[in-house]
Amino acid sequence: MHFDPHHLAALSAVLRHGSFDAAANALHVTPSAISQRIKALEERVGTTLVNRTSPCTATPHGLRIAKHAEDIGLLENALTRDLQLDGDGSQRHQRIAINADSLATWFVPAMAQVPDILFDLEIDDQDYSADWLKRGAVSAAITTVPNIPGCDAYALGALRYVATASPDFHQRWFSSGVTPATLAKAPNLVFDAKDGLQRDWITAQGAPRAAPPCHYLPSTQAFVDAAIAGIGWGMNPELLVKTALQTGTLVPINGDATWDVPLVWQVSRVLAPALTPVTQAVLQTAQTVLVQP
Question: Could you tell me which CATH number the domain at 159-261 has?
């Protein structure tokens, strides 16, 4: 099926900017023209692509077609670059699934190395980000899955975590040591329902049946702040708490018992040549920051 590029551009703009009026401003056309293009595209596909809410959102079919439009833009830019042709100077969007801790600790410097790409980041746990690639919702992902069909995989190294708490919290809950009994009682911090780091670490400490009370804090910085405030203990990226550990604001709750999470850069094989500059930036940054084998 052939899609009119003007219709695809209208769909992408509506979903990116959240309204027909904003999309019209971005594409320098009238809101009526945007409406007509979306309607024509929906008629061609035979289903609704845009939920007319505030802001506008995509239906599953709309999200997939919008992703297709972005992929075409990336491939066109790559062709222009490879053939040394004069392009239109526009930046292309790349949608990536990434875990919040990577974004907070090392991924932004990689983004800065590719100024001609506009990044759309989907935040998800590293154990689940592969699902975004499998359903075609992103072009690349940082994940823990070693191989995904149809993707090129690059080992990045490991993001090291430390189980940390404030000195007062440590004294209150772990003065007698880190044991199954103390781990079962001490409140801990959990990012969200998908976050299994604390559970994995507790199991590694010999307490697989411990079920401690939990605070849910879906924010990397709030995770650190909550640990410093003595609300609970949590698995924090070593990169993020290095200063707090050096100054004693945070302490490891069990000495040198760190936890390494190996990360993998997975990129759609079809788009891999177009995303070579991004892949190079990600690999170079990871090599200097993450724990290498």
Answer: 3.40.190.10
> What is the mean pLDDT of the segment spanning 134-162?
93
Q: What six digits make up the tokens of 99?
A: 């875990």
Distance CA 141, CA 96 (A): 5
DSSP 168-182: HHHHHHHTT-S-HHH
Distance, CA of 185 to CA of 180 (rounded, Å): 9
Please give the Cα distance from 158 to 169 (Å, whole number).
Answer: 28
Query: How would residue 70 be classed by pLDDT, with cut points 50, 70 and 90?
Result: confident
pTM, two decimals, is: 0.79
Which tokens go with 237? 């990226």
CATH topology of domain 1-87: Arc Repressor Mutant, subunit A (1.10.10)
Residues 6+ apart with CB under 8 A from 44: 1, 3, 7
User: What confidence score (pLDDT) does residue 185 get?
Assistant: 97
